[in-house]
Amino acid sequence: MTALQRPWLNKQLPLEERVETLLSAMTLEEKIGQMWQVHDPKDQHDQNVREGRIGSFLNVPRDQLARLQRIAVEESRLGVPIVAGRDVIHGYRTLFPIPLGQAASFNPETVRLGAKIAAREASAAGIHWTFAPMVDISRDPRWGRIAESLGEDPVLASRLGVAMVEGFQGDDPAAPDSIAACVKHYVGYGAAEGGRDYNTALIPESELRNVYLPPFRACAEAGALSFMSAFNDLNGVPTSGNPHTIRNILKTEWNYPGMVVSDWCSITEMINHGYACDEAEAAQRSIAAGVDLEMVSESYRNHAAGLLRAGKLRQEWIDDAARRVLRMKFVLGLFDNPYPAPATPEIFLCEPHLQAARRAATESCVLLKNNGALPLSPSGLKRVAIIGPLANAGADQVGCWAMDARGEDSQTPLAALRQSLPSTVVLDYSPGVPSSRSVDTTGFAEAIAQARAADVVLLFLGEEALLSGEAHSRAFLTLPGSQQQLLEAIAATGKTVVLVIMAGRPLVLTPVLPHASAVLYAWHPGTMGGPALADLLLGKESPSGKLPVSFPVMEGQIPAYYNKRNTGRPPSDESRGLPQGTPLDPVGFSANYIDGDHLPLFPFGFGLSYTRFEYQNLTLKSSDVRAGGVIEASIELRNAGSMPATETVQLYVRDLFASLTRPVRELKDFQRVTLAPGETRVVAFKLPAEQLAFYDNEAKRHLEAGDFKLWIGGDSRCTNEAAFRLLA
Ligand code: GLC
């Protein structure tokens, strides 16, 4: 066909005209072809591509994609290009901290840059589209995919999810170094019962709208080009066949113009769910619900045309699906530049990318305990023991969803400390245990001997990468393997132990704390985790990370998230440790455990630094605010220590009385503030009253007059409190 016969190739035409002109030229089979995404291209797919029966590939090597693209563009009837996707979740070759670690930075600028660098490297590999950001609110550390989430809070996940969308897509998604974002997993996946992946999620409409949907809506409004439906069923309706969440809320209520891709075979898995009796019914339910592109399974390819002819599908649904896939391809510029730019391998792991990853890792680490052991004073050290299975584990320190990372590219803590410590300092190293899960204790003797000879022990413990991520949920959250025993054996030498933990989730640290003078939580810090940790341990930088998720005292506390409701009998400790024979009377009958604490070990938003931040003079401009108005609050923050440091100042509110029970605290805003030693600064917030609104179980939005409390401080338990009233 000539260019004249392909008017949609005219760049001067408006986008929607290009889409509609092409759509109107397509046959039913070609439209359905746009609704299929294939993995592992084999030769037989060449003919499918030639006949316009495949719209997308995922995980296709660059050279194979170039060949398939040439067939699609030059040998198919309409020349519709392929869009190629891949999971570039926290970096391509330069790995940033896992998203949960990035969330601990509370820094949208850092997160945005990480996504931009991921896009630069991924697009250089021929990838058009990444399946990220993952913005599932995650309150359960047993769930393996908490590692790739942005934590338990809707405001934090919204801000950072938007930053990732902006980083991936840039100002122009058609730019050669931009890639399409895909907001996932829509919706409620993180509420999997028992923290077991793929499990049922039972979420009332109000909780769905007040907690789980906001990050998705924020990313939709930020222009994310696609969404991904999820594996879980939501209140009994699988999310990949759920008309309420997709066609009603996303596509109608939010008027979202982007494309919805299923998760891997999540459409045909509705047969396992018991929601479809066969592939034909699965296809019917998903197309009717608004899933535009089927990832890997073939129910659309095999049944959509027959379902349409049988009157079980509307033509408009198929047109809408194909339209949205085509629209994304036009916006990505694939019709104008379908072939990848010449390879630029020098961009992978280039110095600016490595330095950005180092900054992200530095900002992501959270100091949980410090009895003064940190920062180390190199001048006072003669011998240092570096011990643990994660001290020199390049492949593990990058964490889950790092498909294109190479272990040898990682700069480990051992290597970084060797470079950073003065040559006069003797370094001893031993893993102590072969791997994080190993119960082989034969390495203890060497480790203990090294500890005895050292001035200080730097212990690197935690989880190997395999222990978090998809389908890797854990029922026990203490240190795996024999690591606790190793820690206690090293501590028994009496030497100062500085513990660095790498993990893909909050671990239960209760047994760990008594045996370490300092605990620095590094998550899985990525390619540059070593240099970042060396900078922090040696005091070149002060830790500034804050917890994006609560850390439970024990597994029994789960879920331990901070923004809970108060209940009719708020937890108290009166009934803790009742003496035997205590008569059963209503003393201490409250929402607590009789055998354990009800408060998390470390709360959401918590993190120490090498200085001391002092808060005073919390001030409200007015104690009354009307709908449409703004609550103006400020506080004085002082760096009372001797090191420059950064504090994330957090603002929380509580709606004391409402037509629906409301959380005891909700994060509404945060600011990162860097202060020199002795410096004081007034930190001001402007909170629109509209952000006090909430949804009820009929999906009705309420902004109710009444009394509120407000706190500003360094974590979700801060006590600097004020009160205000929302007037009718
Ligand atoms: C996986 C994941 C999803 C990922 C997709 C493609 O099963 O659930 O997050 O993007 O398949 O790899």
Structural class: alpha/beta
* Order of adjacent strands in the largest pleated sheet: 11-16-15-14-12-13
Query: Cofactors and ligands present?
Result: alpha-D-glucopyranose
Number of strands: 26
| Average predicted confidence as pLDDT | 97
**CATH fold assignment of the domain at 357-537:** Rossmann fold
Q: Which spans have pLDDT < 50 for at least 5 consecutive residues?
A: none
The whole-angstrom Rg is 27 Å
Q: What is the overall silhouette?
A: globular
Report on this model:
With 728 residues, the protein is of the alpha/beta class. Among the domains are: 357-537, Rossmann fold; 613-727, Immunoglobulin-like (Sandwich). It is built from 20 helices and 26 strands. A six-stranded mixed beta sheet has the order 11-16-15-14-12-13, covered by helices on one side. It has a five-stranded parallel beta sheet with strand order 4-3-2-1-10. The protein has a five-stranded mixed beta sheet with strand order 18-26-25-20-21. Helix 7 (154-169) runs parallel beside helix 9. It is globular and about 80 Å long. The model has no long low-confidence stretch (mean pLDDT 97). Alpha-D-glucopyranose binds at residues 87, 131, 184, 263-264, 470.
